[in-house]
Inverse folding.
């Protein structure tokens, strides 16, 4: 059965879908929210989409993700440079429902909002409108030559363009433009946080959810990425320091070659230290900047409710070489890992910081496989947990709008993205040393139906199982927040404990596991950093 609606650019034909939970919903796929970023528009700010005549198919068409190297096996180049499309899932076209806008993660290099990556089957049962978006990735979305011709952050401006489209059109899908929540995991979470800081995005949404990422994460920010962009051009055959020459040259290079080359700009050590070839930066050289000033200035203006959190063993996903040789590499880079989140450059303080970190996490002995849980905990803290805590701590000290902090610790039977990645990289003998815990963005398997995680078992968890209870629990918490700004406005059989927002007097997080409850934030690594700052 097909359904017709109208947007500013013309008429769209969608269809009725059936979720794996047996709930019907209306689906519109592949809606253009900006002009295709091709030819002269490559590396440019997004332009408005062109209108069309007749009825545009938004139902049976194949929708592409942005051009990328897939981060999961078989690690192929997939997608298309023509990628600025979004998808709308709604219970009905009439009414005004809360809108949730999902911004995918993937290190600004991979991921997508298309339904081969994430499907709305769980969240859509909670009477919300879900929008999933694409944005340009890699150097196609973040080329930064520290010059107006390529100032960076093009992919973040794509997200703003999608939010503007939503403001103009979502009422035609049963959505309330005055009640929009943006959410995302990993680089999507960092994007969400940047959107809360950017003057360009002000007024386009009303609440935000950051899952395992924030602007202060070492991998999510760089003072300047120009060096990587010049290196990319040299790898592809243009050794120049003239930004205009480089942009003109790169516009002649097939997009797939740019995508293939981007991993070559990093050294093996940079990759091991969670450096990314592209990252957001301030872009004051732009005539229309996304991040025109430093965080301190921008942070003074944030005043929307936020949910932020992380998984308790984040770094399991990234601990891809637990062999003796792999552990030796990590130990050799340990000081550089620790320095990634240090606030001092003083050699004496760094030396003391390293002594304190080693003693606390590993004692005075060489690092062995028995230390893998401690190493994963340390790296989880450096790259995810401490930075998110710092952002939340800053918000509570500023006494901003309510901020809700969580830790997801549940380990169930549902296949997660970490499971898919690690089973191809780690042999069973080494995997037994890993700690039991929730890894990076594991909670996504309980918020969305993720097709690549459901290949072996496409059915949802059975009613009454702890996995099905977790799906019900997370979708209620997330959609309660989208509806009201409070994840626990009331208690029920699934939500058995009120979630307290942080305050100037109480710094607590909400533990999400088989049981729920508020616990004080206490992080040993943060204390070590503070002592040596």
């Amino acid at each position: 059965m097909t359904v017709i609606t109208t947007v500013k650019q013309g008429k769209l034909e969608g269809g009725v879908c059936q979720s794996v939970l047996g709930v019907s919903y209306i689906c519109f796929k592949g809606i253009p929210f900006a002009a295709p970023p091709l030819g002269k528009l490559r590396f440019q700010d997004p332009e408005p989409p062109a209108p069309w005549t007749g009825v545009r198919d938004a139902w049976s068409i194949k929708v592409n993700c942005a051009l990328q190297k897939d981060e999961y096996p078989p690690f192929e180049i997939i997608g298309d440079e023509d990628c600025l499309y979004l998808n709308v899932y709604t219970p009905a076209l009439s009414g005004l429902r809360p809108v949730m806008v999902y911004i995918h993660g993937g290190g600004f290099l991979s991921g997508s909002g298309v339904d081969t990556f994430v499907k709305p089957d769980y969240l859509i049962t909670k009477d919300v409108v879900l929008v999933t978006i694409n944005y340009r990735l890699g150097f196609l979305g973040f080329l930064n030559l520290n010059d107006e011709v390529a100032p960076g952050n093009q992919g973040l401006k794509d997200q703003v363009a999608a939010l503007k489209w939503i403001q103009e059109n979502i009422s035609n899908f049963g959505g309330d433009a005055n009640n929009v929540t943006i959410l995302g995991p990993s680089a999507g979470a960092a994007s969400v946080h940047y959107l809360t800081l950017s003057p360009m995005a002000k007024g386009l949404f009303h609440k935000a959810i950051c899952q395992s990422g924030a602007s202060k994460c070492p991998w999510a920010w760089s003072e300047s990425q120009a060096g990587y962009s010049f290196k990319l051009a040299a790898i592809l055959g243009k050794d120049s320091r003239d930004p205009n020459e480089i942009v003109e040259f790169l516009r002649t290079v097939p997009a797939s070659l740019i995508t293939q080359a981007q991993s070559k700009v990093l050294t093996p050590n940079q990759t091991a230290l969670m450096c990314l070839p592209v990252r957001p930066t301030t872009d004051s050289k732009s005539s229309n900047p996304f991040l025109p000033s430093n965080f301190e200035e921008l942070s003074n203006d944030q005043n929307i409710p936020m949910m932020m959190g992380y998984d308790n063993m984040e770094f399991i996903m990234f601990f891809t070489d637990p062999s003796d040789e792999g552990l030796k590499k990590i130990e050799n880079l340990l000081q550089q890992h620790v320095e990634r989140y240090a606030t001092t450059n003083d050699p004496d303080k760094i030396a003391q910081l390293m002594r304190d970190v080693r003693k606390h996490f590993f004692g005075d002995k060489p690092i062995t496989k028995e230390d893998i849980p401690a190493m994963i905990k340390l790296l989880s803290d450096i790259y995810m947990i401490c930075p998110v805590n710092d952002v939340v701590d800053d918000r509570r000290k500023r006494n901003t709008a309510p901020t809700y902090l969580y830790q997801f610790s549940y380990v169930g039977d549902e296949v997660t993205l970490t499971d898919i990645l690690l089973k191809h990289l780690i042999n069973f003998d080494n995997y037994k040393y890993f700690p039991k815990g929730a890894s990076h963005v594991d909670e996504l398997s309980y918020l969305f139906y993720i097709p690549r995680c459901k290949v072996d078992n496409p059915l949802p968890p059975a009613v009454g199982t702890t996995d099905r209870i977790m799906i019900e629990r997370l979708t209620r918490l997330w959609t309660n927040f989208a509806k009201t700004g409070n994840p626990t406005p009331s208690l029920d059989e699934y939500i058995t404990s009120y979630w307290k927002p942080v305050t100037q007097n109480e710094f607590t997080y909400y533990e999400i596991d088989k049981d729920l409850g508020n616990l004080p934030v206490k992080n040993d690594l943060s204390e070590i950093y503070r002592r040596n700052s």
Observations:
- The mean pLDDT is 95.
